[in-house]
Write a structure and sequence with these properties.
NADH Oxidase, Nitroreductase-like, 38% helix, 8 helices, two-stranded antiparallel ribbon, ligase activity, ligase, F420-0--gamma-glutamyl ligase, 230 residues, four-stranded antiparallel sheet
Length: 230
């Protein structure tokens, strides 16, 4: 992506500035919260298809996230092929069985009880799309020389947030899944050693029978997640 010859600072006027009134700023903030509070993690997907173009636009949004040195250290692998989804499910369930059979420890398993999860992951096949997020630990200049990426976990985490918000904004539901370890994803998806898989996101429309755990509706109040100095 980068050429050594073009790495220099060149300031330009701020594009696309939203010059809202104070009242409009507050109204927009409240409207966005009202929309996002309706986002739910869903494990039950319908067989309704989702067009590839929708996934592309949501990933395009994720690609606008800020990143260390603007290196954009991420890659999103979108999968709709049923055979590949099955491979991912089988490998993920192998890891999950070890997790639930004692690898996680009693305290962690106890914490998961209200969520109602287990080692059975049918959503990895049922969802029309899986998006596997890879964090790129290093990249290459156009001449093949290797360079280091910076703040990779932080940058990729922000991009994942952008992606989840975009999927919800498009009327889709999603489930984040993090089997551990996840190196099998590099092999299944033929991704290079420089990339570390950090998340599988199942994407689609909810089943008419979809349910969410009651505990998922319990969110910390503002005074517990915000402190203000000044």
């Amino acid at each position: 992506m980068f050429s050594r010859e073009t790495i220099s600072y060149k300031p330009i006027p701020l594009p696309d500035r939203a010059d809202f009134s104070d009242e409009k700023v507050l109204a927009e903030a409240k409207a966005y919260y009202d929309r996002m509070k309706r986002r739910h993690t869903v494990r039950d997907f319908s067989d309704r298809p989702v067009a590839r173009e929708v996934i592309e636009e949501c990933v395009r949004t994720a690609g606008t996230a800020p990143s260390g040195a603007n290196h954009q250290p991420w890659h999103f692998a979108a999968i709709s092929n049923q055979d590949v989804k099955r491979q991912i499910r089988e490998a993920a369930e192998d890891e999950e069985r070890r997790f639930y059979e004692g690898g996680a420890g009693d305290e962690w398993l106890k914490a998961l009880e209200p969520i109602g999860t287990n080692d059975h992951k049918p959503h990895l096949e049922d969802a029309p799309w899986l998006i596997v997020v890879f964090a790129q630990r290093w990249g290459y200049f156009d001449d093949g020389t290797r360079y280091k990426n910076y703040y990779v976990p932080e940058s990729t985490g922000i991009a994942c947030g952008f992606l989840l918000a975009a999927l919800h904004h498009a009327g889709l539901v999603a489930l984040t899944h993090t089997p551990n370890p996840m190196r099998f994803l590099n092999k299944v998806l033929d991704r290079p050693e420089s990339e570390k898989p950090i998340m599988i996101i199942a994407v689609g429309h909810p089943s008419s029978e979809a349910k969410v755990p009651a505990v998922a509706k319990l969110k910390k109040p503002l005074h517990e997640i915000l402190s203000v100095a000044g």
